[in-house]
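Collaboration report, partner site 2.

Our partner group contributed sequences for two proteins of shared interest, and the home lab folded both. The records are reproduced in the order in which they were received, starting with the first partner submission.
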Amino acid sequence: MATKSCELVLCFFVFFVISFSAISVSAQTCDNTTGTFIPNSPYDKNRRLILSTLASNVTAQEGYFIGSIGIAPDQVFATGMCAPGSERDVCSLCIRSTSESLLQSCLDQADAFFWSGEETLCLVRYANRPFSGLLVMDPLGAIFNTGELNTNQTVFDIEWNNLTSSMIAGITSSSSGGNNSSKYYSDDIALVPDFKNISALMQCTPDVSSEDCNTCLRQNVVDYDNCCRGHQGGVMSRPNCFFRWEVYPFSGAIDQINLPKSPPPSVTSPSPIANITKNDSRISGGKIAAIVVVTVVTIILVVLGFVISNRRKQKQEMDLPTESVQFDLKTIESATSNFSERNKLGKGGFGEVYKGMLMNGTEIAVKRLSKTSGQGEVEFKNEVVVVAKLQHINLVRLLGFSLQGEEKLLVYEFVSNKSLDYFLFDPTKRNQLDWTMRRNIIGGITRGILYLHQDSRLKIIHRDLKASNILLDADMNPKIADFGMARIFGVDQTVANTGRVVGTFGYMSPEYVTHGQFSMKSDVYSFGVLILEIISGKKNSSFYQMDGLVNNLVTYVWKLWENKSLHELLDPFINQDFTSEEVIRYIHIGLLCVQENPADRPTMSTIHQMLTNSSITLPVPLPPGFFFRNGPGSNPGQSNSKSFACSVDEATITDVNPR
């Protein structure tokens, strides 16, 4: 009985060691040769920020993204990539888990990469210098399968060499087709007589040339042949290329590998990696018990330390991130020529916006809050905390802030084409927005809100979505701006209430105005209004005549729907580059967004699917909120369920008491 107990304990211990090794050993490399950083320094905070948003950016860019955040010397460059054909959810999960693994493993290295995955292959890399287009051969990550080949090595080598050579040739000769994520990718199988199939996968990053890809993959093959020949598979990975083969089918980067109990040393030259030797010495029951006790206690201490550290991290993240993004007031004054009038870009509800240029040549937009503005220090800090945690191609990027004396300044990336309303509601500029451009703007706004609601590590409710808060870059790509009113939701939180309603009339949902209740569906309502404005070129806050009655835009569109004349909504300035079916579908989606009951409105993920997949059947919309039922004795400012006086003012409302 004692022997059986010892055997059970031994089995548990061996299982634990193998399981623990499988988790900790991976094809990741923290590079010590390019410098280190101090934990919680500006560089570290920028690193955490860009990695936290990498998954959403990768999925938004069809499987491949490269970008940077911050200002030198704290600027962090990062890239993320998934294997072609990866499902969005699978890709997003792979990027998120891989990013988190890098943060936990590379504690102070300024350069690191990790090829990872179970259901799909993905890459995450960050560095303190630009690397796009540059072939980097060091360091090398190496893992080999501990199982040994049991076949004729000569015959096996011939098939193995033929397979790897043909794959490399195929990858580098057909690199021009497909999108970035499908460039330089191949998986293949070869049959070894009287043995098993060889499954192999290769991929390069799409930013390098085909010649560099060829060089990188060939060196991976050579390194494996020199270090690990005779084993049943393994992984060789570099920052720009990945190679894996096994004697069984696989999909991800490290799943199902029978990993050694400790990782082999990295290969920097074609020298063999030391094999893991097995010891057959007997271990006494007392020693086994002692080992198990020590192991369990160690695990408990590690978990406890992780929980405490995570709680401290969460508390720190809610504080103002002063170290990473704070600018000296004199720096901002110098960049804007002391807030010169000629540098003024415009004036918003909370102050003025100025163009500036930092000493390193970076163009910036400085939001200078007026001393009498409704946005106080609480809202100011809220905008800094919220935006500093976000990174997406369709969100304006916060570079920093300054809070000195009475001056409250927010420093954003400069977006050259001003805001959407500057074009949309101008009688001469709106003709620059053809249907293709308006459709792309709607799609970009959709992805930005979807990121806020679902894909970022925070759940953000914007609460002030409107045309003037959508900025347009040089390529007319939309960027959501102005997060002063935004609220962070908990993971499981869906609805919140407030006694202080903020936002802009015409864009605010009925339940928010009348009851102070807001949720993701409040943003959906605002987005629906935006869709209708973008298609019509009309402001929701304006009033229109139809059948001799006064209407707001939402009511006007609803009556067009009832009359089956939605085509009348289309802005006459839109060029003839559209189909009426597509335009009507977009109007239909807009009406679904502005339905009175929040439960009837679709989520942003459903909206994205509706916009991108025309085969999805749209439900019939119900009457919208603030639908004016005009008639004898009726008040034109009355909705179908609540009496409410609408304002046509475009300024953001900061203090309204809900009923």
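Second partner submission, folded after the first:
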Amino acid sequence: MELRDYQKEVIGPALEGKNILICLPTGTGKTRAALYVAMQHLEKNSNAKVAMIVNKVHLVNQHYSKEFQPILKDRFKITPISGDSEEKGFFAHFVRESDIVICTAQILLNAVTSNSEEKHVELTDFTLLIIDECHHTQKDAIYNKLMEVYLEKKLNGQSNLPQILGLTASPGTGGASSFEKAVDHILMICANLDTYKIMSPQTSIKDLEEKAKQPNKQYDLVPERDTDPFGDKLKELMAAIHEYMDDTEFITNFGTQEYEQSIVLMEKDGAEAADRRKRTCAIHLRKYNDALFLHDTVRMKDAYDFLEEFYIMEKFLKNSTEATDVFLYGLFNENCDELSELCNNIEYENPKLKRLEEILKEHFQNSSTSHGIIFTRTRQSTYSLLEWIKSNASLQDLNIKAAALTGAGFSNQSKHMTQNEQKEVIQKFREGYLNLLISTSVAEEGLDIPECNIVVRYGLMTNEISMVQARGRARAEESCYSFLAESGGKESRRERTNESLEELMKQAIKYVQEMPEREYQEKIKDLQRQSLNERLVKQAKTESQKKFAPSDVRVDCRNCSAAICFGSDLRVMEYVHRVNINPTFKENYEEYSEPINLGRKMENWVPGGAIRCRLCKAHWGMIMIYRGVTLPSITIKHFVLQTPEGPKTCKKWKDVPFSLEEFDYNTYNEDCLSDTEDD
């Protein structure tokens, strides 16, 4: 296995057993360098065992099949373990039997904290831990939770901990606005990873530049619409909803993130106060705001279709005669013909689409081998752009074969891709059956995607890490990286800021690399002790928030305020799912869909259909069929908790003010049998 000069340079300390963070651009072979370290580590140590952890499921098989297995299969046993593999249930066994395990960080953390003999492992069972995309090792990210276990052992004097090898293209600046804060951010990541040194090429920069050629960057900025009657009409309807609410001092910055945040708070206030009018209006206003986002990103037609589908489904599912619902349905119905007429007038169409069409023609009309990616913000805009491309005759004449690529996380609000669907799209793109992807951020990092001739960041406002990752996809000879946005808009200003932050990051990395070794080590130790203390304080605070008995907290439907259960009816299943074990709970909900396709096989359960409130038809969660037992799993954001101190809403289960018991399958079965005998 041959390495380039810059790869040999950056792995030097790792071959000596030191913890390092390798910082190399996308596409320059970080994984290959890590593989070489793993190979040398295993050859030198007879009791060595390596774990490579990733932050996305599809990367498990990618690293296994593209790198580790082809090169090392004749010398070492390598086992990939992902969330949908049967090996997960016997993690400890496969760790014992393997030289290299490739898995997600979540699976390893679950195994480290598990009480199950089949799953439990110690971090000390491994001698080398490779962390892919290690810039995520911060705050509450899963990598950092795993490294907290490591650091706690280290600070308690344990010595046989695994060597750490972190890989990243861009550690970022952590949102820093100054050089000092950027340095602090880099040092914090180094402390979290217990890093001896950040390694980037110093003596072999020319070799790196030869491999990592930067694309030609262009700003494709277009003027805003001269007139926007469709957008103005949407804003007029939003103003009418505020007037209906007697909200005369409403915010007028419709179609912005700031407005969306204010509407989220309005919905929360309405839910906690059981003010159905306020809450319902907030939900509809958010849909109008989403439509304005779509209108700004793609076609007027896409925004109109989005709203029309929402109102059709609302009417079909709820068929409500409540006054607020009648007003909101009526307002849209009275204006839908005018909106439909406006959205078909090409005079007012989105100028960004015209420029995108020109870019695609420029890069696809003279080449049969061109590949490209368009990055956009939401799943909805991804599919809208795909539909636009497929319906554009001039683009179809260029033989553009496009597909969407979005996240695999399930959402009842928007279409999600299963992991198998993701793999299929990427495989077709790699083999040339597809030549254009329209993607959310899921394609920014990690994926084994062919070199692209054109990468377009379409109206995006993200951080410098996303910019660097997306740009790294344009690796073909004479490739182009286009930032397409409205001239003078906040998106283009943010992109310019990201360029400055990238330079700031490079300066901060250089400063940290040049720090005197003693000063650096003392700083790292201080940050680690500080981090451990903050963790202990946070744990104590979390425990203090669990101040109510589960039986003292009532759970109400967020939409209609109906009381549906108590906290004592709920259990935690497999550390993740919250299920209601009270058999009378089924009187409150109804199943309203076919079994949900999660795109992967779960270890002990299969999904049933989605469930909703029997009274107001609001979505609640899904059915879990766990080892033959049917249980409703509910999502906390769809409910209001009535506590002894008043109503409370929570986004995540970790924030609820009471503790939940673990689900005990055997006890539950015994109780069910007992109930049957009593009947």
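Feedback sent to the partner group on the second submission included the following. Residues 517-545 form the longest helix (29 residues). The longest strand covers residues 605-613.
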